[in-house]
Amino acid sequence: MRTQFLAAAGLTAILTGSPALAQPSFSPPGLVTSAGQAADAAVVKLALNTQYQLGMGYRPAAGVDDLAGMKTLIVVVGTTPEALAAAATDLAQELGRAKALLAAARAAGIGVVVVHSGGQPRRDKASTQLIEATVPLADYVVVVAAGNADKLFHKLAAPRGTPVVQVDRVTGVGGAVSAVYRR
Fold it and tell me: Is the pLDDT of residue 114 over 60?
């Protein structure tokens, strides 16, 4: 665990230019949700709970009431028209839910981790709107490098000094989250 943390801290220092000591720390209980209703959230939850044994709860369309008792909220951002249709929602409703959820989490002192694991395919106009709505409210951001070629995540995280960790593949997301999550 300590080795994973040090690796993530060093990676963040390199990628964001911030000192490694600025790493936030998150604690259980935690909840994984989606902003965009893509299957990416289920994949991230599976990795966190099976490979890293973090014991995260999962509610793909979590609402403010689902935050009760939580200390960490992990929001996996990315969408497709098919994902929104399957969830019987639209982009405007999903944006509203995500904004309300993150605002409530921040107000309650719940740590917010935003994850974008979809790479370039999830960087269409709709996903970018969700990214712009969530990243400025995050305490920690993990992004697959291919989805951040334009450094949008860094630009959105910069005003609050939020660490942004880039990983090469979706398989690196779990390690980057696990590195800052105390069990």
Answer: yes
